[in-house]
Amino acid sequence: MLFASVFMVLWVLTSRTSGQSVTQTPSRLAIKEGVAVFINCTYQYSGVAYLYWYVQHSHSEGPQLLLTEYTGKETGDAFFAEHLKADKTFHLRKEAGGLSDSAAYFCAVRDTGFLSPRSSSGRGRLDLVQSDAVFQSHPEISIAEGQDAILLCNFSTADSNPYLFWYRQFPNKSPQHLLTKTRYSAADQNFAPTKYSGTLNPETKTVDLKIKDVSLQDAAVYVCALRGNNQLHFGAGTSLTVSPMEE
User: Fold this and answer.
1) Are 86 and 166 contained in the same domain?
2) How does strand 104-111 pair with strand 49-56?
3) Less CB within 10 Å around the terminal CB: N or C of the chain?
4) Boundaries of domain holding 201
5) What are 196-243's pLDDT values in tens digits?
C-alpha cells in the first residue's frame, strides 16, 4: 500500500500575508502502487500568487521543493500540477504512484511581490554564485523544563538581504511559522515575541532561535529555512526533547 499524508498548510512569510489561505484535500490518501495520484489544492488570495508544492519524506527532515507552477508541467512518470488562476487551484497529479512516493505533500502560495528573482545578462557569460543552503548541525537536543533553549542554524547565500525563517512541526502536522528575520528589520516578525526570538548575523551567516522558559508542550522538530532563488530552502531540522522538571 502507498500512503501519502496530506495536510492543510499556510506558509506565512511576512506580516503582509493576512487573508491568505490554502486548503488541501483529502487529509490522508491511501492507494495501491501504480494507481493515479490526485491531491486537491485550492487557495484564497486577492493579489497575484505564486504556487509551490513541497514534499517531506520523514518528520526528521525538512520539506523539499517538489515543483512550482513553472516547473510542474506534465513529464511522463513525474508529479505535475497546473495553476488554474480563474479557479484558484493547483492540484498535484501523478499518473502512477510508487512506494517511494509515500510522504507528506504541502501546497504553498506566496505573493509575487515578495519575490526577488536573480537575473543575468550578456551573451556567452557564465555567472558563478554561492548556492542557497541551510545547515542545522544538531539533529537532536535535550533540555530540562523551565530552561531556555537555543537552536543553531547556519546558511549560505549570495543574497545581500536574505530572508530567514523558523518553523515548528509536531508529528503528523504541517510546519507552523514561528518568526522571520531579515538584515534590515530590527524586530522579529513572529506570532509570540515573548516566547521566541531570533538572532541573525549576516557576517557569520547564522540565524539562531531562542525559546524562553521551555515547557513539555515545546517538544517538536524546529526547522530553519532560507528564501532564495524564488523558493524556500529548509534545514534538516532539530528535534527538541524536553524532560520534566524535578520536584
Assistant:
1) no
2) antiparallel
3) C
4) 133-243
5) 998 899 889 999 999 999 999 999 999 999 987 667 888 989 999 999
C-alpha cell at 60: 526528521
Same domain, 107 and 140: no
What is the dihedral sign for C-alpha 226, 232, 238, 241? positive
Alpha carbon distance 51, 33 (integer Å): 27
Of 113, 144, 165, which residue is a domain's last? Answer: 113
106 and 150 inside one domain: no
Task: Give the alpha-carbon dihedral of 45, 67, 91, 79, to 10 degrees.
Answer: 180
Residues 13 and 108 both lie in one domain? yes
CA atoms of 70 and 48, how far apart (whole Å): 15
Residues 62, 136: Cα–Cα separation, whole Å: 10
Quick one: 137 and 107 in the same domain? no
| Strand pairing report for 163-169 and 176-182 | antiparallel
Chain segment 89-146, per-residue pLDDT in tens: 999 999 888 888 888 888 887 743 332 222 222 233 333 344 788 999 899 999 999 9
| C-alpha cell, 88 | 484558484
Residues 18, 103 within the same domain: yes
CB distance 242 to 145 below 8 Å:
yes
Could you tell me where the beta strands, DSSP code E, fall in 1-120? 2-6, 21-25, 28-31, 37-44, 49-56, 64-68, 80-81, 92-94, 104-111
